[in-house]
Amino acid sequence: MNAVAILIDNGTVIDGLGNPPFLASVLIEQGRISAVGPEAATRAASFDDKVSIDASGLTVMPGLIDAHCHLAFDDAESNSELFFQRRNALSALVASYNAKKLIRAGVTGMLDPDSTFENMIDLRDAIETGVVEGPRMACGAYALITSIGGTAGRLIADRGVTGYYMAVSGDDEIRAEVRRQIKHGADWIKVHVTGVVPRLAHRGEMCAWTDHELALICETAHELDTPVMGHCRGADATLRATNAGFDLLLHATLMDEKTLEAVVARKVPLVPTLTFQANLSEFGAKVGSNPALMELFERELIDSAPMLTEAYRAGVPLLCGSESGFSMVPYGHWHYREMEVFVNHLGLTPLEAIRCATSEGSLALRLDGKVGRIEAGCEADLMVLDGNPAQDVSLLGEIERIRHVIIRGELQDLSPLPSRQPLPGWRVGTIGNQLTRDVAFGD
Ligand SMILES: [Zn+2]
């Protein structure tokens, strides 16, 4: 629906900046918020062609920005299916279906760090030009790794592309790949700073790059006005990525004092993405997760909370990411969940957590200060919902409360999606659990 203006009348506004909610009307013109407060209605009176939304008793707030979401992964149940079973065009088509689930969950912006076939570059372009519907999107291409790989051990080839990864070796290859990705449309360069060595798995994720290589990636990307984000777990890798000049860190868990100091000094935005850990540790048993993995992830959550809290209190931007794209965090269900984790584990107030999921998220979109807030002059990406998330952010998970979603100043279709059948050859089938004689004949 493309009206000249949209007036959202008389709602309770949460501005996304952490201010207390206030009663106001909001006017949208030409894709932007043009007025908030008494001026909105006065100005709106001069428009013949406008849509009016009565928001009395409802909340008006910026749409959520999910700063860590993999739209190409289609709620993968295993790495194998992502690495060996997906097709390029079909996964992009499926992603455009899934993008609509995000809209219906109140997500109006997202950062997609890496994708199979780097095809989320194409989805972003299709959304931006109005070919398909979807949230405002920024994206990376293939995640850069060394031959150590990321978190999938020996499934990852020693050279070249596996799934959403690209292994690079040596300065020339690093420079060439960074430049190639930027040429083809990456908004961000994504680096898997840490990886798991199967034989050294007890050490956790280890830094897989030299300091020189990390700095070279940043230098090459920055020369082309492109920021760099890193997947980092552990104090050592987080410190080295920070010192190398990374612009955003995903996870940044298990920091120590020295790392915290460096992160605070540079105010590197962090996307802890603890939703995955919280879901696995809290609900893993319901979906048959391995108890050892559940315990490991619960530890990561508990052990990382104090340093992340300190970082936030010292002025480091914390952004909300869901890691949706995996079966533990399916699209449309958990995009609000990081706010809940920030409130329950990091001690943020609901309004602070909402700020992390809205105005702070603008950093992920490279639209700092221009989206994620209800303020005159900002892009009109917002939602209207029944309930007061300033008291309880969990309400944002109840998508039946969402009455309207507006992206780029346009009202979005929230009608139920057509149901979808399983795609042939898309998932890895398992034969079943181990049929020992005890299982077969025991009680
Ligand atoms: Zn991720």
Helix and strand arrangement:
Layout: E1 5-13, E2 22-29, E3 32-36, H1 38-44, E4 50-54, E5 59-62, E6 64-66, H2 79-85, H3 88-104, E7 107-112, H4 120-128, E8 136-139, E9 143-145, E10 160-162, E11 165-167, H5 170-183, E12 189-192, E13 194-195, E14 206-207, H6 211-223, E15 228-233, H7 235-244, E16 248-253, H8 257-266, E17 270-271, H9 275-283, H10 291-313, H11 337-346, H12 350-357, E18 382-385, E19 402-407, E20 410-411, H13 437-441
Parallel strand pairs: 1-4, 1-5, 6-7, 7-8, 9-11, 12-15, 15-16, 16-17
Antiparallel strand pairs: 1-2, 2-3, 5-18, 10-11, 13-14, 18-19, 19-20
The structure holds zinc ion (ZN).
What does this entry look like structurally?
This protein has 443 residues and is α/β, with parallel strands linked by helices. It contains 13 helices and 20 strands. Strand 1 (5-13) and strand 2 form a beta hairpin. The model has no long low-confidence stretch (mean pLDDT 96). The protein folds into 2 domains: 1-63 and 373-418, Urease, subunit C, domain 1 (Roll); 64-335, Metal-dependent hydrolases (TIM Barrel, Alpha-Beta Barrel). Strands 1, 2, 3, 4, 5, 18, 19 and 20 form an 8-stranded mixed β-sheet that branches. The protein has a 4-stranded parallel β-sheet with strand order 12-15-16-17. The chain has helices at 38-44, 79-85, 88-104, 120-128, 170-183, 211-223, 235-244, 257-266, 275-283, 291-313, 337-346, 350-357, 437-441; strands spanning 5-13, 22-29, 32-36, 50-54, 59-62, 64-66, 107-112, 136-139, 143-145, 160-162, 165-167, 189-192, 194-195, 206-207, 228-233, 248-253, 270-271, 382-385, 402-407, 410-411. The protein starts with a strand and ends with a helix. Helix 7 packs parallel to helix 8 (257-266) and helix 9 runs antiparallel to helix 10. The chain is globular, with a radius of gyration of 22 Å. The structure holds zinc ion (ZN). Zinc ion binds at residues 68, 70, 113, 323. Residues 68, 70, 113, 323 line the site of zinc ion (ZN).
